[in-house]
Fold this protein.
Amino acid sequence: MRIIIGGMNHESNTLNPIITGEDDFVVFHGQEILEKGLLPYYSSTGIIEALREADCEIVPTVLARAVPNGVVSDEFYYRIKAEMLERIRAAVAAGPVDGICLALHGSMKVKGLGCAEGDILSAIRNILPEVPLTVALDMHATITDTMLACADGFVGYKTAPHVDCRETGALAASMLLRSIKEKRRLTTRARTVPMLIAGEKSESAAEPMKSLLNACRAAEKEQGVLAASLLLGFPWADDEHEAVTVLVTTLDDPRTADEVAARIAREFWRRRAEFDFRCEHYDSKTAMKVAFRAVLHEGMKPVFVSDSGDNPTAGSTGDSTELLECIVAEMTTVDKLPTPLLYSGFYDARATAACIAAGEGSSLDIEVGGTWDKVNGKRIPLSVKVLRIVRNYGPYNSDLVLVGHRNMVLVLTSKHIGFGDEELLPALGVDPRDYCLVVVKLGYLEACFSEIAAKAILATSKGCSNEVLESIPYRRIRRPMYPIDLEMAYEPD
Ligand SMILES: [Zn+2]
C-alpha cells in the first residue's frame, strides 16, 4: 500500500498578539520526516511506525510544528500548504495512492483565514476526492464541519498532559489500513457539546475526564467502533467553532457512530459541573502570600506556584507581569526567604540580548515583560547580575539567560518556548530542588516538577491563558456556552 503522510501542529491563541512565523516553526521536508522527524512526542512518529510495520510505502510530504503561540503567519502557512499540495500532486503523478494519514493539531489558526485544518483538508480533497483519509488530532482540537466533510476517520489524544501521541498516531494509521484492506468506508459521527473547559480543569488523571475517557476506551471495544475521541477545543481562541466535540469513527456503521457519540456527549454534559482545579488555586496576590507562608512558617521546600494565566505552552505570550508585580511589591519578604525565589521565566528577546551583550558576571539595568501582552504586562525595571548564559538551546534555538535580582533569580529566553521542559533549568545549571520557592509560567505541573514539589499552588494569574474563562471578554464564541451561561439547556440528540 502506498500512503501519503504529513502534518501541521500548532495551537493558536487568538488572545496573544504575537504572529507565529517561520522562525518559530520546526519544519521537516519530504524524506527528512522519516529520518530527523521521528520524535517520540509526535503523533506522526506513531503513524510512521504503524505504516512501516504493515510494510507500506510511505510518501512523506511536510511536517511543521511550533510551540503554541499567537495565530500563524498567513505567508508562512500558505507556503507550507503549497509545498504539501505540490508533494501530493507529485505522488499522484508517480503512481496510485491508497490512503492519506495526517498528524494535525486541530486548533491551528491562520491570520486572515481562521481554521487551518479545514483549509488544508479541503485542498487535499480537491486533489484526491475518494482516497481514504484519517487524521490524528490533539485533545484540544476544535472541530469544524469542513474538517468532518473532508476526512473519513479521526482520533484524538486520550491523555492530558499528552503522553499518548504515538499511540494516537498508530491508531489513525491502523484505522486507515483496515478500511483499505477490508474495502469498507470509515464513517465518523460527531456531537458538539457547547462547553469551554480550562486546560487545568481537564487533566486526564482527574475526574470527570478520567471516567469520560474510559467511556471512550470502552466504546472502542464495541463492535465496529474504531475510535471514540473527546476533543475539548481550545478556550483561548475566540472563535465561533469553539466547543467540546465527541467524534466516533466506525467501519461503515454510521448508526453506531451516531449512537455512541450521542451517549458520550450526554454523559459529558451530565458531569459538566464537576470540572474543577485539582490543586490549591488563588489569585496572584493570594497565591504568593500562601507560598511565602508555606516556606517561611512551615519550612516547605520547594513550593511551586504556577503562573497559569501566562502559560506559553497554552499559547500565551510568556511576558505578562501581573504575578511578577505581586512579587516585586513583596521584595522585603522575598529577601527573607532562605534561598532565592526562582522564576522560570520570561520570553523577552530584548532583555536576553542585553544580558548576553553584557556577559556573564556583569551587572546591568534591564526591563522585563510587557512587550507583547500590554494588557497584563508592563516593562518592569530590574537591576540584575548575569549569572549564566546558554546559546541556541533546544530545537527552537533559544538563547537562555539566568539573572539575579536581590533574592530572586529569573530565567529569560530569546524565543517563545515552554517552561515545562525538564531539561531547560538543568541546562542553566539550576536544580529546582535547591530553591524554596519556584514560580513557573505553566499550568498543571509537568512530572519533573510535580514529583519534587512539597506544595503546588495554581495562581489564576492574568494573561492570554487566563484559567478563569468566565472573566475573558469573548466576542466571537457561540452563545449560550457553558460555563459562561450557567443556566443554559442542552440535549445532544
Ligand atoms: Zn493539547
